[in-house]
Amino acid sequence: MRAAVLEAPGQVSVREVPRPEPGPGQVRLRLEGCGVCASNLTPWSGPDWMRFPTEPGDLGHEAWGVVDAVGEGVESPRVGERVAALTYRGYAEYDLAEAANTVSLPRSLDGQPFPGEPLGCAMNIFRRSGIAAGDTVAIIGIGFLGAILTRLATDAGARVIAVSRRPFSLDLARRMGAAETVPMEDHHAIIARVKELTGGRFCDVVVEAVGKQWPLDLAGELTRGRGRLVVAGYHQDGPRTVNMWLWNWRGIDVINAHERDPKVYMQGIREAVEAVAAGRLDPAPLFTHGYPLEALGEALDATRDRPDGFLKALVRFP
After folding, report:
1. Which chain regions cross the lipid bilayer (predicted)?
2. What pLDDT is stored for residue 237 in this prediction?
3. pLDDT tens digit sequence for 111-135
4. Residue after which a domain boundary falls, among 256, 275, 304
5. Are residues 50 and 16 in the same domain?
6. Which of 44, 167, 170, 195 shows its CA 20 to 30 Å from the CA of 263?
7. Is 275 within the bounds of a domain?
């Protein structure tokens, strides 16, 4: 099979390597595609702790495809079933997954890309946020995740204020149901505008979905007394400071909405499959850029640089 290997910082090659064989409790997937995650960008940049070359397919964890072999003891899923899966070497034509870490895709989703892990991540973050009808919610950063959270919060009856840098993202937020949009340009101007929009009260829930210091600072400022600040951004490029005086004074509940338990991941993926199959969520317009495996480096660069119109890259296999 063909598999991508990160050879050095910012350098990727495609190698011919043996197909993996499923062990007990595992299935092998012939992959249709794999999403490109922003969490790949730190390894792509080559930090001191990163070791090159990587294992074939490494870093790809947003895969979906068709089961083509099963290991001992596996009764479900069966060979030929199309599934979303939690795998870890999805930048390759085949990957292994624990059978328990797969979710069958209904026939109504045939032909549609379905990177289950990021969709499930959005569902899990939304559940952790506790957003309810009547809440005023600020979502900081309208990328793939922020756009889905805007739709989920709006459908739950919340009033969403979307804060983002790009005009493209603000237009998208409006299409996903945001009641108000605020350009992410001037720190104090944003605070003043949200204060005005909320009658001086600020927001019941603020979701930070960028993963940088400034948006985290801003999130605290936009959260009302006894409100909830939900950290959904991926903060892995260094330590952060927080305004503990403000958080303490306002009595803010801070929720780190990242999961590491595969069972929780799978719960989110199942909920995402149900939502998309029922028509409550349509992620298709959010998959804005597609690349062949040989262009994985371009996909990673686009994920980092976010050209106009970019939200989410998928690596697709013919």
Report:
1. none
2. 85
3. 999 999 999 999 999 999 999 999 9
4. 256
5. yes
6. 44
7. no
Kindly state whether residues 64 and 139 are assigned to the same domain.
no
Residue 34 β-bridge partners:
63, 315
Residue 41 in tokens: 């960008």
C-beta of residue 139 within 8 angstroms of C-beta of residue 209: yes
Provide the number of structural domains found in the chain: 2
Q: How far is CA 36 from CA 4, 66, 118, 235, in A?
A: 13, 19, 10, 17
Instruction: State the sign of the Cα–Cα–Cα–Cα dihedral 152, 158, 159, 162.
Output: negative
Query: What is the spatial distance between Cα 57 and Cα 88, in angstroms, rounded to a whole number?
Result: 8
Does the global pTM surpass 0.90? Answer: yes
Question: How far, in whole angstroms, is CA 238 from its chain's centroid?
Answer: 20
CATH, residue 215: 3.90.180.10
Report yes or no: 29 and 94 within 8 Å, Cβ to Cβ: yes
> Tens of pLDDT along 253-292?
999 999 999 999 999 999 999 999 999 999 999 999 999 9
Residue 241 and residue 133 share a domain: yes
| Range(s) of the domain holding residue 101 | 2-115+287-316
Residue 71 sits in the same domain as residue 145: no
Amino acid letter for position 13: S
Distance from C-alpha of 283 to C-alpha of 233, rounded to nearest angstrom:
19
Whether 55 is covered by a domain: the verdict is yes
Please tell me the predicted confidence (pLDDT) of residue 10. Answer: 97
Reading the block at residue 199, the tokens are 């009658």
Q: Helix (H, G, I), strand (E, B), or coil: what is residue 69?
A: strand
CA distances from 262 to 22, 121, 298 (A): 19, 11, 30
Element (H, E) at 196: helix 187-197
Count of H-run helices and E-run strands, the chain? 9, 15
With CA atoms as reference, report the closest residue to 207 among 125, 271, 276: 125
Same domain, 75 and 173: no
